[in-house]
Design brief:
Structural class: alpha/beta
Helix content: 25-40%
Number of strands: 27
Oligomer: single chain
Distance between the termini: 9 Å
Number of helices: 22
Shape: globular
Radius of gyration: 28 Å
CATH topology of the largest domain: polyphosphate kinase like
CATH class of the largest domain: Alpha Beta
Number of domains: 3
CATH architecture of the largest domain: 2-Layer Sandwich
């Protein structure tokens, strides 16, 4: 139970807010690094199975790679161009880079430490990674044969001399630099072998080759050998007639951001060119294996032109994100128990007819606990239904194998009017989205790419169906992408409605994106960048006004990131007025919580666990003593960042249906506030500390995995004995 006395009376403080930006805000980049430190900490969580811990380690590696490619690369570019703009906390690009590099190096050291621990633990469980001492003769012979037949034909050794200039190493490129000596005359030579990304990063020795002949040091179990280890071990096959004097395993990270000028005449052609340029961006980080030959390492530093680049030495393994391949080892005893999402019972009660169920009452679906398949079925049913006239769909990230794309193609081929807003500026999904756009267009779908300088980040499906001589519109609004793989690990909300007002607003939204027809007003939706910032300010100001006249005042919010200065300042003003504010911010948070005279009424926590918390929810007390008395609840596609409020097309929508309102507020949001087992609380100094489980530990992921579906059961859930969580003012 969450309890705290209601706030009332005059604001407790009228102290002027501190002017020093470093006191008021946490640096965006350092806050992101703190988030990745929390991710890495899960790799040391001994309550998790070993392979799941390895998964968290690999995620921390891929997260850090992207951070270097985008955020650090951007700061390096600003510094080199002598841009003097400062961050939210008042730091120049060079000041931020100095602080970032110190934290990044510490993060790399922690990753190496965790990898050493996990490598030992996995070995004790019979999974040996990059441990060649355990290779017996059968395994060695198989590996040599595999290298000769399956690896060497794909490799292209390249000498480095005046006739063979130093080769280009693409972003993410992994390679081995060799120092060789010709056996015939003793002449020295440098050569490089770049490892093609098409080859598996790790080779698993077949089970029947694991084991030892007499005297060999080997054990039963799975053995994984890295691709670079194979190249080093069997380099004599690549360089016959040469002795291997030294070698150096390396990996390169380059600037991978894409900048598009507003005057681009053809957005698709411009992006295709920009994607090609991405491969050749400035080197931002060079990663070397600790045991590398010093002369080879120095040659790499010189030839790669490491201007302002970070050089990292990694013990045993470079590119720690590649360990994701080992996580796929078939050892269910070393993974979380499998979890199968439930199909929403409300839909099954209507014999699988999505339209009938939505027509009866608004529905909220809670992914991944409830299956994303219902979203796909909504579109599949629309594609096959002869009464459906039109489908309109936004696509930000759809995945490599998308049933959503297949449903849209089927609908177009069935003669329906289908419009798809494909966002080709979705970072690192640009090529995939261009491919989907091409397939959709070939099938007859009208493909729209949206705005040049804004991303269309809203998640909306609109289906127009002819019923009893008139048209009815059905809508799906999501807090997450139409990505079936992500929907199994991201916690998100899907909201289905046949409310005509939502339908009219969704149509206005699509007209805005496809034809630049800016809606003068909307009935339900709040659209960014047109009105979302102003609406959030208005809602916060209402809570401030309530607090100042002695009414209960509270704000409960769940976001992925909170970095916008204006929004943070509004929350500070609300705290000073006495508004109780509880924020669940998974990732970046530039707001400082619990600072006297600034934010003593604000609490910030972050949840990291089996699933990635991704849904965006806002709730405002609206002057009521109990939230269940109709606090205002909204779900959104937007985070609390300037880009979401000012440079993206986003939606926020009010939840007014009583059942859905209570499900989101009293179940989803309160479970996030109650969680202690996966939560980290932020101190006033911006440091996150893992919460103590307490006398009554609560794990929100376990709660939703073990309790029946939320979707539309209403009183049936309570009758079935589902624990009902209760939200009261003040989450403590």
């Amino acid at each position: 139970m969450l309890t705290q006395p209601d706030s009332g009376g005059e604001p407790t403080s009228s102290t002027a807010l501190p002017a020093d930006a470093s006191v008021r805000y946490v640096n965006r980049e350092l806050s992101w690094l703190a988030f990745n430190e929390r991710v890495l900490a899960e790799a040391s969580n001994e309550t998790y199975p070993l392979l799941e811990r390895l998964r968290f380690l690999s995620i921390s590696g891929s997260n850090l790679d992207e951070f270097m490619m985008i955020r650090v690369a951007g700061l390096v570019g600003q510094m080199q161009r002598k841009i003097r703009s400062t961050s939210i906390d008042g730091q120049t690009p060079s000041q931020q880079l100095a602080a970032i590099r110190e934290r990044v190096m510490a993060l790399h050291r922690d990753q190496r430490r965790v990898w050493s621990e996990l490598r030992t633990g996995l070995g004790e469980q019979g999974i040996h990674v990059a441990d060649e001492e355990r290779l017996g003769q059968p395994a060695y012979e198989w590996l040599r044969s595999h290298f000769v037949e399956e690896v060497a034909p794909v490799l292209t050794p390249q000498a480095i001399d005046p006739a063979h200039p130093f080769p280009f190493v693409a972003n993410g490129g992994l390679g081995v630099l060799f120092t060789l000596k010709r056996e015939s005359d003793g002449e020295a030579m440098e050569a490089m072998v770049l490892l093609p990304p098409a080859l598996p990063r790790f080779v698993r020795v077949p089970d029947d080759k694991v084991g030892a002949k007499a005297g060999a040091k080997a054990e039963e179990g799975a053995i994984y050998i890295s691709l670079e280890s194979l190249v080093r071990r069997f380099a004599d096959h690549l360089f016959p007639g040469f002795a291997i004097v030294g070698d150096c395993v390396f990996r390169v990270i380059r600037d991978s951001d894409i900048e598009i000028e507003e005057e681009a005449e053809d957005l698709v052609r411009t992006f295709r060119s920009a994607i090609q340029r991405r491969r050749r961006g400035q080197v931002i980080q060079l990663e070397l294996e600790d045991l590398s030959d010093p002369d080879d390492a120095q040659l790499l530093r010189e030839q790669l032109g490491l201007r302002d680049a970070l050089v990292v030495e990694s013990e045993w393994l470079v590119g720690i994100a590649g360990l994701a391949a080992v996580v796929e080892e078939d050892r269910p005893d070393l993974k979380f128990p499998p979890y199968a999402p439930r199909y929403p019972e409300r839909i099954m009660e209507h014999d699988g007819d999505c339209f009938s169920a939505i027509r009866a009452k608004d529905i909220v679906i809670h992914h991944p606990y409830e299956s994303f398949e219902v979203v796909v079925d909504f579109l599949r049913q629309a594609a096959a239904d002869p009464d459906v006239v039109a489908i309109k769909q936004t696509l930000y990230r759809a995945g490599n194998q998308s049933p959503v794309i297949a449903a849209l193609i089927a609908a177009a081929e069935a003669g329906k009017s289908v419009t798809a807003v494909v966002e080709i500026k979705a970072r690192f999904d640009e090529e995939q989205n261009l491919m989907w756009a091409s397939q959709l267009e070939r099938a007859g779908v009208q493909v729209i790419y949206g705005f040049v300088d804004w991303k269309t980040h809203a998640k909306v499906s609109l289906v127009v169906r002819r019923e009893e001589g008139r048209l009815r519109t059905y809508c799906h609004f999501g807090t997450g992408n139409y990505h079936p793989t992500n929907a199994r690990i991201y916690t998100d909300l899907s909201f289905f409605t046949a409310d005509p007002a939502f339908g009219r607003d969704a149509a206005r939204l699509f007209n805005f994106v496809t034809g630049y027809i800016e809606p003068h007003k909307t009935e339900r939706l709040v659209i960014a960048p047109l009105a979302l910032r102003e609406k959030l300010y208005e809602l916060i100001d209402t809570e401030i006004a309530n607090a100042r006249v002695g009414k209960p005042a509270a704000i409960w919010t769940k976001l992925n990131s909170l970095t916008d200065e204006g929004l943070i300042d509004r929350l500070y003003a609300a705290s000073e007025a006495g508004v109780d504010i509880q924020l669940v911010v998974r990732g970046i948070c530039s707001l400082r919580a619990g600072v006297p005279g600034l934010s003593e009424n604000i609490r910030v926590k972050s949840i990291i666990g089996r699933f990635l918390e991704h849904s965006r929810i806002w709730a405002f007390g609206a002057g009521y003593r109990l939230p269940s008395q109709r606090a205002k609840v909204f779900i959104s596609s937007a985070d609390g960042m300037g880009r979401n409020l000012d440079r993206r097309v986003e939606v926020m929508l009010p939840v007014t249906n009583r059942t859905v309102h209570d499900q989101i507020l009293q179940q989803v949001l309160v479970a996030n506030l109650l969680d202690t087992e996966q939560s980290w609380e932020c101190d006033p100094d911006g440091i996150y500390r893992r919460m103590a489980p307490g006398e009554h530990p609560f794990n929100l992921h376990r709660y939703f995995m073990t309790n029946p579906s939320l979707s539309g059961r209403g009183g049936a859930a309570e009758a079935a004995g589902v624990p009902k969580l209760a939200l009261k003012r003040g989450a403590t």
